[in-house]
Amino acid sequence: MKIYPENNEWQPVQGVDGVQLMPLMSSAASDGSNIYLVEFSELFLLVDLGSDQKRLAAVADAVNAADPTYAKPLLVVLTHCHIDHIAAAPGLECLQPRQIAIAGHFAGTSALAAQDQALTISFLFKTIPPLIDVDLVLFGALS
User: Fold this and answer.
1) Number of helices and strands in the chain (H, E)
2) Global confidence as pTM
3) For the residues of 70-101, what is the DSSP string, one character each?
4) Residue 46 and residue 77: Cα distance in Å, rounded?
Protein backbone atom coordinates (compact mmCIF):
# COMPACT_ATOMS: atom_id res chain seq x y z
CA MET A 1 0.00 0.00 0.00
CA LYS A 2 1.36 3.38 -0.98
CA ILE A 3 0.84 6.24 1.45
CA TYR A 4 0.17 9.65 -0.07
CA PRO A 5 1.19 12.41 2.34
CA GLU A 6 0.40 15.17 -0.13
CA ASN A 7 -2.36 17.67 0.48
CA ASN A 8 -4.36 19.27 -2.34
CA GLU A 9 -3.17 16.66 -4.85
CA TRP A 10 -5.17 13.98 -6.64
CA GLN A 11 -4.51 10.49 -5.34
CA PRO A 12 -5.76 7.29 -6.99
CA VAL A 13 -8.25 5.20 -5.04
CA GLN A 14 -6.70 1.77 -5.08
CA GLY A 15 -8.97 -0.96 -6.38
CA VAL A 16 -11.42 1.48 -8.00
CA ASP A 17 -10.49 2.34 -11.56
CA GLY A 18 -11.01 5.92 -12.66
CA VAL A 19 -11.68 7.31 -9.18
CA GLN A 20 -9.37 9.75 -7.50
CA LEU A 21 -9.40 11.57 -4.17
CA MET A 22 -8.03 14.94 -3.12
CA PRO A 23 -7.77 15.63 0.61
CA LEU A 24 -7.88 19.33 1.46
CA MET A 25 -6.67 19.26 5.04
CA SER A 26 -6.98 22.06 7.56
CA SER A 27 -3.86 23.37 9.22
CA ALA A 28 -3.18 22.52 12.85
CA ALA A 29 -3.81 26.17 13.74
CA SER A 30 -7.13 26.23 11.89
CA ASP A 31 -10.56 26.12 13.47
CA GLY A 32 -11.83 24.30 10.40
CA SER A 33 -12.29 20.70 9.44
CA ASN A 34 -10.85 18.59 6.68
CA ILE A 35 -12.73 18.32 3.42
CA TYR A 36 -12.41 15.67 0.72
CA LEU A 37 -12.96 15.92 -3.00
CA VAL A 38 -13.59 12.73 -4.99
CA GLU A 39 -13.77 12.54 -8.77
CA PHE A 40 -15.94 9.86 -10.32
CA SER A 41 -16.61 9.47 -14.04
CA GLU A 42 -20.11 10.98 -13.64
CA LEU A 43 -19.60 13.64 -10.96
CA PHE A 44 -17.45 15.22 -8.29
CA LEU A 45 -18.25 14.53 -4.64
CA LEU A 46 -17.21 17.00 -1.94
CA VAL A 47 -17.45 15.80 1.64
CA ASP A 48 -18.09 18.84 3.85
CA LEU A 49 -17.35 22.47 3.09
CA GLY A 50 -15.05 23.33 5.96
CA SER A 51 -14.59 26.89 7.14
CA ASP A 52 -11.87 28.16 4.81
CA GLN A 53 -13.10 29.65 1.54
CA LYS A 54 -9.55 29.39 0.15
CA ARG A 55 -9.94 25.62 0.25
CA LEU A 56 -13.13 25.91 -1.79
CA ALA A 57 -11.16 27.98 -4.29
CA ALA A 58 -8.70 25.03 -4.43
CA VAL A 59 -11.69 22.73 -5.05
CA ALA A 60 -12.82 25.00 -7.90
CA ASP A 61 -9.32 24.98 -9.41
CA ALA A 62 -9.16 21.18 -9.20
CA VAL A 63 -12.59 20.45 -10.68
CA ASN A 64 -12.23 23.07 -13.40
CA ALA A 65 -8.84 21.67 -14.41
CA ALA A 66 -10.24 18.11 -14.44
CA ASP A 67 -13.47 19.14 -16.21
CA PRO A 68 -13.09 22.53 -17.94
CA THR A 69 -16.42 22.14 -19.78
CA TYR A 70 -18.42 22.07 -16.50
CA ALA A 71 -20.10 18.85 -17.66
CA LYS A 72 -19.77 17.01 -14.35
CA PRO A 73 -21.95 18.22 -11.48
CA LEU A 74 -20.71 18.60 -7.92
CA LEU A 75 -22.51 16.85 -5.08
CA VAL A 76 -21.70 18.25 -1.64
CA VAL A 77 -22.42 15.93 1.29
CA LEU A 78 -22.55 17.66 4.66
CA THR A 79 -21.74 15.18 7.41
CA HIS A 80 -23.36 17.43 10.01
CA CYS A 81 -24.27 21.07 10.57
CA HIS A 82 -21.46 22.31 12.84
CA ILE A 83 -19.98 25.62 11.74
CA ASP A 84 -16.50 24.21 11.08
CA HIS A 85 -18.07 21.94 8.45
CA ILE A 86 -20.26 24.58 6.75
CA ALA A 87 -18.82 28.09 7.20
CA ALA A 88 -17.22 28.20 3.74
CA ALA A 89 -20.61 27.76 2.02
CA PRO A 90 -20.57 31.26 0.47
CA GLY A 91 -17.42 30.14 -1.38
CA LEU A 92 -19.49 27.73 -3.45
CA GLU A 93 -20.09 30.66 -5.79
CA CYS A 94 -16.56 30.17 -7.14
CA LEU A 95 -17.70 26.80 -8.54
CA GLN A 96 -20.43 28.23 -10.73
CA PRO A 97 -21.62 27.73 -13.43
CA ARG A 98 -21.10 24.08 -12.49
CA GLN A 99 -24.30 22.36 -11.32
CA ILE A 100 -24.15 21.95 -7.52
CA ALA A 101 -26.41 19.95 -5.23
CA ILE A 102 -26.14 19.81 -1.44
CA ALA A 103 -27.09 16.74 0.60
CA GLY A 104 -27.41 16.82 4.36
CA HIS A 105 -28.76 14.89 7.30
CA PHE A 106 -32.41 15.61 8.03
CA ALA A 107 -31.61 16.53 11.64
CA GLY A 108 -29.44 19.44 10.50
CA THR A 109 -31.46 20.77 7.58
CA SER A 110 -33.77 22.92 9.70
CA ALA A 111 -30.76 24.27 11.65
CA LEU A 112 -29.08 25.21 8.37
CA ALA A 113 -32.22 26.81 6.94
CA ALA A 114 -32.81 28.79 10.15
CA GLN A 115 -29.14 29.68 10.65
CA ASP A 116 -29.46 28.26 14.16
CA GLN A 117 -26.45 29.42 16.19
CA ALA A 118 -26.92 26.81 18.92
CA LEU A 119 -27.23 23.69 16.76
CA THR A 120 -24.46 24.80 14.40
CA ILE A 121 -22.33 25.77 17.43
CA SER A 122 -21.55 29.03 15.64
CA PHE A 123 -22.16 30.91 18.88
CA LEU A 124 -18.76 29.61 20.02
CA PHE A 125 -17.16 31.64 17.21
CA LYS A 126 -19.47 34.64 17.66
CA THR A 127 -20.76 34.28 14.14
CA ILE A 128 -23.97 33.54 12.29
CA PRO A 129 -23.89 30.42 10.12
CA PRO A 130 -24.42 30.83 6.39
CA LEU A 131 -27.85 30.11 5.00
CA ILE A 132 -27.70 26.73 3.29
CA ASP A 133 -30.54 25.17 1.33
CA VAL A 134 -30.24 21.39 1.29
CA ASP A 135 -31.35 19.83 -1.99
CA LEU A 136 -31.26 16.21 -0.85
CA VAL A 137 -32.31 15.35 2.71
CA LEU A 138 -30.62 12.20 3.98
CA PHE A 139 -31.67 9.67 6.61
CA GLY A 140 -35.16 11.04 7.20
CA ALA A 141 -37.88 9.12 8.93
CA LEU A 142 -39.08 6.12 6.98
CA SER A 143 -42.76 6.25 6.10
Assistant:
1) 3, 7
2) 0.89
3) --S-EEEEES---HHHHTTGGGGGGGTTS-EE
4) 6
